[in-house]
User: Fold this.
Amino acid sequence: MTSPTVDVHAHVLLPQVEALVAGLPGLAEAKALDARRNGPAALGVSGPMVGERLPRLTDVSVRLAAMDAQGVDVQLVSPSPSHYHYWADEGTAEKVYRLANEATAAHCAEAPHRLRGLGLVPLQHPDHMVRALDHALEQGLAGVEISSHAPGRELSDPAYEPFWNRAEETGAVLFLHPFGCTLDERLDRWYLSNTVGQPTENAVALSHLIFSGVFDRHPGLKLIAAHGGGYLPTHIGRSDHAWSVRADAGADCAHLPSSYLKRLWFDSLVHDPHVLRELVRVAGADRVLLGSDFPFDMGTDDPVAVLRAAHLSVDDFDAVRGRNAASLLHLASA
Assistant:
């Protein structure tokens, strides 16, 4: 039996969500913050880039043709992080997550054997997150996508405990995908907001989850970190050292920080075969999943070729190519 080739990092654009929030109080301020963080040069490139890729982001037939060209059998499709809208009030946030969950499920239902989906939860309203997760699962989605933080809240916030409980109880897949870096204008040139900001946010968010003891309290969480977990896996030795020598660093998690990497999953999107090999070494070949960031320019158009360039063993290559994701998502082998 051969496992399908599975891409766990692929996005869908949902115009109906943007139509829902258009003109609402708070949206203009959020867009202004996004513009300030990215800078005018980045926005000038990003707009046309997304426009050119719109068919692949919205049309299932175009998506499937692109997957065929890549040799990808199954995608785990998550909403574009631009749909998070963590500025929204409770009422608007409920409308956003319900619409996003239903629209993503409808998109995937056009090719159910090839597309699995993830929904959204309102990270800014912890009291609503369990209900939002349940709604996503009721639509047949595999779980939900979350960012690295919400305004005024890190992922270590105790208010998220009911959500972690419910995610663990249901076996929902959580996809940690940052959107926006709080280093703000320091990264507003040369697309540093993405090239430096995304891996920074991944590392910060994962560190909050590890050092706060979330994974001790919820060892069954199924969390995939986008972008290979950012800077954390390649610099985890510094975290281990701090945990070992400082009482404050080691106060709230029971084990060496590096040991938690083997409880997580990471996508393979690190843009360097040597970094990918290191990720496999520290997390384990059974914890790395193929990821392309389909179809954005900061992804890869040929994720299997990129994986092959890391020169993993045949068994490790097959595990990352699809066997691990097939097991995680309960997909049938071909």
About this structure: The CA atoms of residues 206 and 229 lie 8 Å apart. Strands lie at 6-12, 74-79, 115-120, 143-146, 149-150, 153-154, 173-176, 222-225, 265-267, 288-289. The radius of gyration is 19 Å.
